[in-house]
Design a protein that fits this description.
The chain is mainly β. Helix content is 5%, strand content 61%. The protein has a domain of 67 residues. The chain has a 26-stranded antiparallel barrel. Strands 7-13-14 form a three-stranded mixed beta sheet, with no helix packed on it. Strands 6-8 form a two-stranded antiparallel sheet. β28 and β29 form a beta hairpin. The longest helix is centred in the first third of the chain and has 24 residues. The radius of gyration is 34 Å and the shape is globular. The chain starts with a helix and ends with a strand.
């Protein structure tokens, strides 16, 4: 190229450089700030990229719903137990002024589950949030009981109730219905205060009340009764802290307190059966005791250049001083005095975490994690008489065991980035546990693993992870010798037993229509993940000896155009457990195979910004199926028995639409349909099916239900 062709370009660059300098320094008095704009009409000036926030925005949403069914499971899913027509309101009032923000947000007012939140904040000064919420859990509403005051502290039978020997002899006309329902009501206040640009503090106060009726069981000798027990609990939490932020990190100090109060300390119940032995015609049950927990925490982090440090230290104390119940409420038993009126339990907790991460200049990253969890149980140990279901005082004595444990966990791994989007990671993990008054004093679990992840054309992502774990420990000595198992058999609890674990995971992601010449699909991606794990308990004769878990996840997402998108996914999982046992406690004579299978699939179809950007529609469908089967084989008897423990089949369909009618009016519609069917072996028996077990007459959930909601949102 000749020099003459460069001349216009050089002249333009020279002129541009000259104008830049002249505007800022060379032409004093001719800069933009000194320009005379008095005669310019600025009324029609508009910045189309600037967001104008009004001082106050008020949005009120009114919803009308129609619900076909109000069974407990469906009502818990939708947060409302109403049937037929109902209505609820959502509200959002947002006010912003210079540096201040106020907001009132209410959701589901008129439903069983609802919430209201108040917020007040000032920039760089404070933030206050007050929240009130109700959260209910609904259950069966047609349970049966012989007690006239279901949920009471002392369950009483009808005045004309005649005690009989078996459930089939009990008068069904005297049974009453009761509903299983737990109601939660919670308050929460959070205050954040900024003292200066580096120092802040906060206070978080929460309280929750839980009331309702649940079910538990009580027994006298071999007679069992399902009891409608009441729930009345309060839980208060208090958290206060302050944190300081500096150039290379931050430091946080906080104090946390938890106070749990159970207003039902005892449940007394009368037996509907005839008195068999010892004169016991009723029983008593204790509930969760009152307890308190206090903890102080210190957290800090530091980051500079290639080094990053994090550390947390927690120290706490758990206390429980609830008074003991008497040995029995049977006045015919001759029992000694309790060795103590209450447990006076005191447990100290100490935990810590340190994380160190260092990045080298040559694509390496090394990470070290250290965890410590130490539980020091200072509760006294006493010997108590052994009373068998309020009927017999046995010669044996029982002692409470104040368990202590200490857990340390070290995780060290290194990561090497050998290309853009490609990494090789390998690591080592050590998990050690020490226990007191348990079958095994120490256990040690070591894990070795590596993972490679890369982008290998034509795939978006490819990763493979393999690991092996080995657990062993000190000599295994059984502390509970009540089961007369032969010394020739090895009995180890699965969480303390020697174990070998193998794991493998893989992931593959690709775009099948990534060719630029293909215009059928704008964007699409397919993800495939698979995993496998196997646990072997090679030194266990009785108990769990092998466990396998496998699974496959497949999903595909695509965008047909800028308006229409589709997501399809499916999941399959299998879990097999093999256990062995002994009928006569001297040799292995039965084998159990427990097979659990679960399938799920779903489709999400969404159309956005239709009808000039005003209409959005969508449809979600999900399907799930799960079955658990147990098969017991007895080679010595040449017998085999198989039964399903639980079968669940569920279909969920949700259709929704949102239409912007005007800048201030928005219309919406949604339909939720659910088909649910379960077969739970626990509900296969009528209330009097077993002669010595009085059930509550419940059945498995099997229903078709829908909820149709239409509403509008108006912005003032």
């Amino acid at each position: 190229m000749k020099k003459s062709k460069h001349k216009p370009l050089l002249n333009s660059l020279t002129l541009a450089i000259f104008l830049c300098f002249s505007a800022s320094s060379l032409a004093d008095g001719f800069s933009l700030k000194d320009a005379n704009t008095d005669k310019i009409n600025k009324d029609k000036w508009l910045c189309k990229y600037c967001t104008v926030i009004p001082d106050t925005v008020v949005k009120i949403t009114a919803n009308l719903s129609n619900t076909q069914d109000n069974n407990g499971r469906f009502s818990t899913d939708i947060g409302d137990n109403s049937e037929g027509g109902s209505g609820h309101i959502d509200a959002d009032i947002d006010k912003r002024t210079q540096g201040r923000h106020y907001r009132l947000f209410a959701k589901g007012i008129g439903k069983d589950n609802s919430s209201v939140t108040l917020l007040a904040a000032k920039a760089a000064a404070y933030k206050v949030v007050l929240n009130y919420a109700t959260l209910n859990q609904f259950g069966h509403d047609s349970a049966l009981t012989p007690y006239t005051n279901a949920g009471g502290a002392s369950l009483a039978l009808a005045d004309n109730w005649q005690r009989v020997a078996t459930t089939s002899q009990m008068p069904s006309e005297l049974f009453a219905n009761f509903s299983q329902q737990i109601e939660r009501e919670s308050w929460r206040l959070t205050v954040d205060k900024q003292f200066d640009k580096n120092w802040q503090g906060y206070i978080d106060v929460q309280t929750q009340n839980k009331q309702g009726t649940n079910s538990t069981s009580g027994n006298i000798l071999n007679k069992v009764v399902i009891l409608p027990t009441g729930v009345d609990q309060n839980h208060q939490q208090f958290d206060v802290g302050s944190y300081f932020v500096y150039e290379y990190g931050s430091l946080l100090l906080n104090y946390y307190k938890s106070d749990f109060n159970n207003k039902r300390s005892v449940i007394n119940w009368h037996s509907p059966y005839s008195v068999l032995f010892g004169g016991a015609d009723g029983g008593q049950l204790s509930t969760a005791p009152d307890n308190q927990f206090d903890q102080i925490s210190l957290f800090g982090n530091y980051h500079k250049n290639n080094l990053s440090l994090q550390a947390r230290l927690n120290y706490g104390q758990l206390r429980q001083k609830e008074s003991f119940l008497p040995y029995s409420n049977n006045p015919l038993l001759s029992i000694n005095m309790l060795p103590s009126n209450h447990l006076n339990a005191v447990v100290g907790t100490l935990s810590g975490h340190i994380k160190v991460q260092y990045k080298t200049e040559n694509k390496w990253k090394i990470t070290l994690n250290y965890h410590l969890d130490d539980r020091d149980n200072n509760t006294q140990s006493n010997e108590y008489q052994y009373v068998y279901t309020d009927s017999v005082v046995l010669d044996d004595v029982a002692s409470n065991r104040p368990y202590n444990f200490k857990k340390t966990k070290i995780n060290l791994y290194s990561q090497y980035r050998f290309a853009i989007g490609s990494q090789l990671t390998f690591g080592w993990q050590l998990d050690q546990r020490e226990r007191d008054l348990q079958d095994r004093k120490k256990t040690k679990n070591e894990k070795y693993w590596f993972k490679v992840a890369t982008r290998l054309a034509p795939f978006n992502a490819v990763s493979v992870e393999l690991s092996r774990e080995f657990r062993d420990g000190s000599l295994y000595n059984r502390t509970d010798q009540t089961t007369p198992i032969s010394d020739a058999l090895a009995l180890q609890k699965y969480y303390q037993a020697d174990r070998e674990r193998e794991q493998a995971k893989g992931r593959l992601s690709f775009s099948p229509f990534s060719n630029a010449e293909t215009n059928i699909l704008v964007n699409s991606e397919v993800n495939l993940q698979a995993y496998f794990s196997r646990d072997k308990y090679q030194k266990t004769d009785i108990g769990l000896i092998e466990s396998k878990r496998r699974g496959v996840d497949l999903s595909m997402s695509t965008s047909f155009n800028k308006h229409l998108s589709l997501l399809i996914y499916t999941h399959k999982q299998w879990q097999d457990n093999i256990s062995q046992g002994s009928y006569w406690f001297n040799q292995v004579d039965w084998l159990s195979n427990q097979d659990d299978k679960s399938d799920s699939a779903g489709i999400n179809l969404m159309a956005e910004k239709l009808s000039d950007g005003k209409l959005t529609m969508g449809m979600d469908y999900s399907y799930s199926y799960a079955i658990g089967t147990t098969q017991v084989k007895t080679p010595s008897l040449s017998s085999s028995n198989s039964h399903n423990e639980l079968v669940v089949n569920s279909h969920d369909i949700k259709v929704y639409a949102d239409y912007i009618y005007s800048p201030v009016l928005n219309l919406h519609f949604d339909l939720l349909y659910q088909q649910f069917d379960e077969q739970d072996w626990r509900f296969e028996y009528d209330i009097d099916r077993m002669v010595n077990v009085l059930g509550n007459g419940l059945s498995s959930y099997n229903y078709d239900a829908y909820r149709l909601t239409a509403g509008m949102t108006y912005q003032f």
